[in-house]
Automatic annotation (TrEMBL):
<protein>
    <submittedName>
        <fullName>DoxX family protein</fullName>
    </submittedName>
</protein>
<dbReference type="Pfam" id="PF07681">
    <property type="entry name" value="DoxX"/>
</dbReference>
<dbReference type="GO" id="GO:0005886">
    <property type="term" value="C:plasma membrane"/>
</dbReference>
<feature type="transmembrane region" description="Helical">
    <location>
        <begin position="9"/>
        <end position="27"/>
    </location>
</feature>
<feature type="transmembrane region" description="Helical">
    <location>
        <begin position="104"/>
        <end position="124"/>
    </location>
</feature>
<keyword id="KW-0472">Membrane</keyword>
<keyword id="KW-1003">Cell membrane</keyword>
<keyword id="KW-1133">Transmembrane helix</keyword>
<keyword id="KW-0812">Transmembrane</keyword>
<dbReference type="InterPro" id="IPR051907">
    <property type="entry name" value="DoxX-like_oxidoreductase"/>
</dbReference>
<comment type="similarity">
    <text>Belongs to the DoxX family.</text>
</comment>
<dbReference type="InterPro" id="IPR032808">
    <property type="entry name" value="DoxX"/>
</dbReference>
<feature type="transmembrane region" description="Helical">
    <location>
        <begin position="62"/>
        <end position="92"/>
    </location>
</feature>
């Protein structure tokens, strides 16, 4: 299993799934829930600067998720999304315990760790980063 082609395929699948999750979350925040409602939720959760935070989170989720899918600026984007997921863990989910069905830290913690894996291992060769760095 320690073959470059297997690793690159695994990173491609991982990036695609993570990207789709974040694109979906960003899309919902921007176009379904709306920024006014998202900012209101952020204020209820005690997130600092809720309006700015809502716009920042929605934008980073939507654009960052798309960049993860295509594999462009992957480690930078995965790092930013990991910080966003860690902040969500702290501000929103920590007080609800562990399990996700009660709103706990389980889901954002998994997202944070998987994003850190992408930061460590990069995008792989099946990405725009991989294509642009080949010599």
């Amino acid at each position: 299993m320690n073959r470059p082609a297997v690793r690159d395929f695994a990173l491609l699948v991982l990036r695609f799934v993570l990207g789709a999750v974040f694109v979906g979350r960003g899309y919902r925040r921007w176009f379904e829930t709306g920024m006014r409602e998202s900012a209101s939720q952020f204020a209820q959760w005690g997130v600092p600067q809720p309006r700015v935070s809502a716009y920042l989170a929605g934008s980073v989720e939507l654009i960052g998720g798309a960049l993860l899918i295509i594999g462009l600026l992957t480690t930078l984007v995965a790092g930013a999304l990991a910080l966003l997921a860690a902040a969500a863990t702290y501000f929103v989910h920590l007080e609800h315990g562990f399990f996700s069905e009660s709103g706990g830290v389980e889901y954002p913690l998994v997202l944070t760790v998987v994003l850190l894996i992408v930061v460590v291992f990069g995008a792989g060769r099946a990405s725009l980063d991989g294509v642009l760095t080949r010599g």
